[in-house]
Design brief:
Elements: E1 4-5, H1 9-28, E2 34-39, H2 44-59, E3 63-68, H3 75-87, E4 93-96, H4 106-109, H5 124-131, H6 140-151, E5 160-164, H7 171-180, E6 184-188, H8 196-199, E7 204-207, E8 225-228, E9 232-233, E10 239-240, H9 245-248, E11 254-255, H10 262-285
Helix pairs in contact: 1-10, 6-7, 6-10
């Protein structure tokens, strides 16, 4: 059978155009949306990704402030910077880019990001609000999965969806978003046992474990839609996902490519979240705007 490739590129352009239009509307009201990206690493691939965010932001009419603290930054310095950006009224969105210096705990630092500016849903309170249905920004990668499924008219209500990976960045928030859409959700992890026990009967499989080739053709059925969230750099510098693409193509009904799938949509959503944050903050600043 033929496997349909679910490219995210067209959807990413649509979302970026929406962000650009919102940025223009905000600028007409005297506000230029601003995203701050905090970096503390000398990792080349991270800096490449940050530059790609910067370019995408500029093309969407969004100011992007890169705060590069270097690979030796301490947790105290990072916390101080995040608190300062949270208090800075000219900044609308904040991202703390990983990896961080050795010994610095991400979970402690992201708690310093103001919820209204937490455009990548990193603050634990954002995840808590998401869990109980209160307004918050979902992590952009988790939302990107939902946006791709919607874009290609893949139904979720009543469907059996397996999420492989339980991180606070993708697996956990994605499971909450899927439950909101009335999917029957199973979350698999390193202690779950053989994957095929869960994935063979799944309508949709989302792989976000950070292990190249984790899911192969023996794990899935011919009706499955597979969303590959993984981004793994091989020794030769090439980028692959968590799915062994060669073994599942021709078996599954549909598959997102890596690169060109979830990642491109994620970046565009970060920009859209920034314009949404700027709009929300502008309403708070206007007397009598609340309610």
């Amino acid at each position: 059978m033929s496997t349909v490739l679910l490219s995210g590129k067209a959807l990413a352009r649509i979302i970026q155009q929406k962000a650009h239009q919102e940025a223009r509307d905000l600028e007409a009201d005297g506000l230029r949306p601003t995203l701050a990206v905090v970096v503390a690493t000398d990792d080349g691939s991270t800096h490449w990704y940050v530059r790609s965010i910067e370019r995408a932001a500029e093309s969407a009419g969004i100011s992007c402030r890169i705060v590069d603290l270097g690979p030796d930054a301490t947790g105290q310095v990072l916390a101080s910077v995040l608190k300062g950006l949270s208090d800075d009224s000219s900044v609308n969105g904040i991202i703390l880019q990983t990896p961080l210096p050795l010994g610095v705990r991400t979970d402690e630092l992201v708690a310093h990001i103001d919820l209204e500016k937490d455009v990548d849903g990193a603050n634990p309170l954002s995840l808590g609000r998401l869990a109980v249905g209160q307004p918050s920004f979902a992590p952009a990668t988790a939302r990107a999965v939902i946006e791709i499924l919607d874009h290609f008219d893949i139904p979720l209500a009543g469907r059996n969806v397996v999420v492989i990976g339980r991180s606070a960045v993708v697996g956990k928030p994605l499971s909450l978003l899927l439950l909101e859409r009335d999917a029957a959700v199973t979350v698999c992890h390193s202690k779950s046992g053989p994957l095929e026990k869960y994935t063979k009967t799944a309508d949709v499989v989302v792989v976000a474990a950070g292990r190249a080739g984790l899911l192969n053709g023996g794990h899935v059925s011919s009706e499955a839609v597979v969303i590959d969230v993984g981004t793994n750099v091989l020794p030769d510098g090439s980028l692959v996902g968590d799915v062994d693409e060669g073994s599942v193509r021709g078996i599954v009904a549909a598959l997102t490519p890596v690169p060109g799938g979830v990642g491109s949509v994620t970046t565009s959503l970060l920009l859209l979240h920034t314009t949404e944050a700027a709009r929300n903050q502008s309403r708070v600043l206007v007397p009598g705007a609340a309610g």
